[in-house]
Amino acid sequence: MPVGHWHPVALTSLETASRAAVGARGDPDDLLRLLLNAPGRAARLTHVERVPARQGVTADWPAWVAPALVERLRASGVDLPWRHQVSAAEHARAGRSVVVATGTASGKSLAYLLPAVTAVLEGTATPNGRGAAALYLSPTKALAADQLHHLSELAVPGLRAATYDGDTPMEERDWARAHAGYLLTNPDMLHRSLLPGHPRWAPFLRALRYVVVDECHGYRGVFGSHVAQVLRRLRRICAFYGAAPVFVLASATVSDPATSAYRLVGLPVEAVTDDASPRGAAVFALWEPPWTSRRGERGAPVRRTAAAESAELLADLVMRGARAVTFVRSRRGAEAVSLATRRVLAEVDPALPGRVAAYRAGYLPEERRELERGLRSGSLLGLAATTALELGVDVAGLDAVLLAGYPGTRASLWQQAGRAGRAGRGSLAVLVARDDPLDTFLVHHPEAIFGQPVEATVLDPDNPYIVGPHLAAAAAELPLTDADLALFGPAAAEAVTDLQRRGLLRRRPTGWYWTRPERAADLADIRGATGTPVRLVEEGTGRLLGTVDADAAHSAAHAGAVYLHQGETYVIRSLDLAESVALAQPAEPDFVTTTRDVTQVQLLGTDRSQEWGRARLCFGPVAVTRQVVGFLRTRVLTGEVIAEVPLDLPPRLLRTRAVWWTAPEDVLTAAGLAPAKVAGAVHAAEHAAIGLLPLVATCDRWDVGGVSTAAHPDTGLATVVVYDGHPGGAGFAERGYEQALRWLSATRAAIAACECETGCPSCVQSPKCGNGNTPLDKAGALRLLGVLLDDVSPDPTGSSAERTS
Ligand SMILES: [Zn+2]
Ligand SMILES: [Zn+2]
What we know:
Number of helices: 27
Bound molecules: zinc ion
Radius of gyration: 27 Å
Helix content: 25-40%
Structural class: alpha/beta
Shape: globular
Number of strands: 30
């Protein structure tokens, strides 16, 4: 059936027809019972949430939609659009930028295809055949390739669509530039190729009516801030050619999508959030792996890894004939889960291991098609996948989804869970907690997942470290005028002066000019790299494998590091910082490496502050000195630390932003902390707080760092600092400042929820602690956070964690 890959909406009708054939295999309650049906399993289930089914609401095709498009959509199985698709399309058609933020498989693509394809088809009537054009942006090449594939299967007569990315051959690039009405690319290409070479794209840009920003919730943090500036450059160049495209954004379900979209594109954006697509009843289980007999650092008890636990659950599902995907955060993890699942299955039936596979980024479109076909036909039952699968692979009709660890945001959680039961059938999702404070908190506080709006997408396009390079790139594209500066935000004026001072821009009566021989666009690496990159060279062959960001080299490419590059694993033999080169050797170790660093923070000023009862909460610029002092070798599947190796690397300086709180003497006394106990209490609170920040900011635990002292030299008080790990900040620490009550309440609840006695990786131990997780005082941290929070918000039940802001 050729339309199989197309649209979730199309699949609904197809799958309904074939539902009888699927049978009761996928009943979610049956599957959950199956998972619980083994000794000791019942105690691991911490919560079951039942999400009721929802009826779909359709709307009529708007009268303006091109008849050829309606006909092709009908032929592919879409009889009528869902109401939210039409609402979003109507906004776009009326010239209002719009973001559609609805669930996985709710058919967001129709929201932009209706206006964009209609406009492009209408434009074919003009003499040059391209009176209107649409630009589609996706965060990955894979997603753009899939979209093109869907479009070609839809086969709308007269629609000329093409992808334009790093893999596009030269002659196809020329064709795309000259003829494509619907161009699919990514922000990287826009930044490096399309915008710097805009004169060659003039006919396309002049005709540009719609810019589609797909998966826009992915544009967060530093990357999102860069993309926001790239889009401002695009708007300026379009205006030069007389075009003012309407933006249509597609997002996962997030809080306040209109605000995030506004920050991303810099224009007012309407939001459509009322999901009118049908949904089958879902059962969502929260699962905490058992303690093992193994002892971790400082004798701490450790739980079984989410990877090992998920492999066992996946094997059970596969044995039952259910189709299931396990989402794992790392490639190495996905491969380990697949391998462990096969091993379990091999003991049961030699035919079963062949029905489980691993999936990760970097697969070719044909390979993805093959996996899709396998899952659909049932020849493949189990898949262990990285989040790459969230984008670009259409796996409809899964019976169950296992999440090996919280994926970092509730948006991703729902996105991944939504992969099951897409066709309106019932489905099972299981979140298996990892050994860290955030996961511990979530499996014991289901209301933080199910009773909360999904978090907002955090980005900070006004970071001067990000604005500067894009102003240089903009000036190279077209001289920059005073009037242009407003477009680039409040940091632009100072940034342009700075570029002038550094001799990168030259002021002339008609504006600022880029006068240097090098490419201005090279100043900004939109994926967040800074400094002179370290070259990664294969030992023996001298082959250049790629580059690593200078700042990341210390933690990712030190001697002994296990390094993943385009799906291949290497072990770094040596890192020469003077020459900016690292020698790598292909290898297949069964361990991963994690660095540990020691950190000092200098508080440079206070931008915002508030009294917090007797304590004080601040946000402002900081100078962070970080030094990687060693690394751990950890087994992928068991989490067992097999070695700790010291490293001798120089400290690095990072200027960024931080949130910090200070606790005066009387708070410490109230918390029953004698002077000798303060360091352990603030250290434990700091570790847990870093772990919990992703709950309120869309960051990863690795995007932020922290430091704590019993008496900080800049405050003279017990101080806990949590900083953004990117130059200039990425908005995460600021979010922590704004959401401090919710953040620290959750931090306290996470520590309290852990059953260990004196601290473990599930609560206050941190894998990246440069001080070997000592001193740590779990009970002291609980009392200290208790006093801080009760001062601000006296609440005997401690339920302040669940209050929305
Ligand atoms: Zn613990
Ligand atoms: Zn530490």
